[in-house]
Amino acid sequence: MKEKLTLMIPGPTPVPERVLKALGKHPIGHRSPEFQEIVKSTTNLLKWLHQTKGDVLTITGSGTAAMEAGIINTLSKGDKVICGENGKFGERWVKVAKAYGLNVTTVKAKWGEPLDPESFKNLLNKDKDIRAVIITHSETSTGVINNLEAISKLVKSHENAIMIADCVTSIGACNVPMDEWSIDVIASGSQKGYRMPPGLSFVAMSQKAWEANERSDLPKFYLDLRSYKKAADKNSNPYTPGVNLYFALEEALKIMKEEGLEAIFKRHNRHMQAIQEAVNAIGLTLFAKEGYGSPSITSVIPNNDINAEEIRKYIKNKFDILIAGGQDHLKGKVFRIGHLGFINDRDIITVIAALEASLDHMGVLNKPLGTGVAAATKILINN
Ligand SMILES: *Cc1c(COP(=O)(O)O)cnc(C)c1O
């Protein structure tokens, strides 16, 4: 039943029917008063989601557009920046920064391990000229959550540096209080925690980020955030935005507001725990270091040298659930279960049941069938 495929990859994620319906309406003029109302309402809801009094600007483009916008709007050629790199998306930051001629120092951690805030501290203490610290909060390629709060606090006490974070798979999944943690730039994308299709991305900017913007000399036009800010102040856009995606955004943010931030964070945390317990119970290995699992994505190493791609394919073909494979050197070594956005307890129970069934089918389930489901269910009913 291919038309009933459930997405459990880290984006695109499932989309609620209310959002799909909003998407299917006739487009309206993007300079109309009706559209201005939508821009106004989504801007306010985005600020609520980011827990900020600063600006959250919407770009028609994927998450990478928001990442690139964050860099080119706050930095200048040759600026010294520190990039955290412990996975594929940390690497992407380094590539964007280098593409614009920034002077990049990387702080690395092994894939599966979190970035160490101490390393950032030492570099920041040594050099007053550092202009930005750039990290990925939830590293989607490994399923690791980095300690953004601790790293951001270090940046706050530095004279010149701003904190830039990729929160693409943490916004809408776990607590990211932008103002309280003094994060200056946050990038995110609609197809992740927003329960929307791909196509919109978001850049949140603090006061300190706008101050950095004043001296920024990197080339920009479509992604020049001053145009977006100027337009947003009049509830508008500089260019033609994805009008129907805005309809979807408004509905999706309303659904999030109805659920409430606390409930959203709790749900993601329960799902993460349920999957972790189930994986341990059936004797597979969690790829992320203990205590650093992402609330939105769990990366798993199969047992008995089974190729992870075989498990992935079996689950898709037999159970119509799409999970993700490993990236780069992890291809075939891990599979990744996305549990981000519009995911309920039933999705968790079925993906674990499908996982056990696939291992059983391959003759490598070393526990009674149902052991994983029992472990997951226990978490789900008791939390
Ligand atoms: C998905 C993702 C992105 C953005 O990717 P796009 O394909 O450009 O939307 C960036 N960072 C992380 C951590 C992601 O998971």
Q: What can be said about this structure in brief?
A:
The protein has 383 residues and is α/β, with parallel strands linked by helices. Helix content is 42%, strand content 17%.
What does this structure look like?
By secondary structure, the protein is α/β, with parallel strands linked by helices. The protein folds into two domains: about 15-260, 3-Layer(aba) Sandwich (Aspartate Aminotransferase, domain 2), CATH 3.40.640; about 260-380, Aspartate Aminotransferase, domain 1. Helices cover about 40% and strands about 15% of the residues. It has 13 helices and 14 strands. The protein has helices at about 15-25, 35-50, 65-70, 90-100, 115-125, 150-155, 205-215, 225-230, 245-260, 260-280, 310-320, 345-360, 370-380; strands at about 5-10, 55-60, 80-85, 105-110, 130-135, 140, 145, 160-165, 185-190, 200-205, 285, 295-300, 320-325, 335-340. The chain has a seven-stranded mixed β-sheet, with helices on both faces. It has a five-stranded mixed β-sheet with strand order 1-13-14-12-11. A two-stranded antiparallel ribbon has the order 6-7. A hairpin with a 4-residue loop joins strand 6 and strand 7. The longest helix is centred in the last third of the chain and has 21 residues, at about 260-280. The model has no long low-confidence stretch (mean pLDDT about 95). The protein binds pyridoxal-5'-phosphate (PLP). Pyridoxal-5'-phosphate binds near residues 62, 64, 166, 168 and 189. Pyridoxal-5'-phosphate binds next to helix 3.
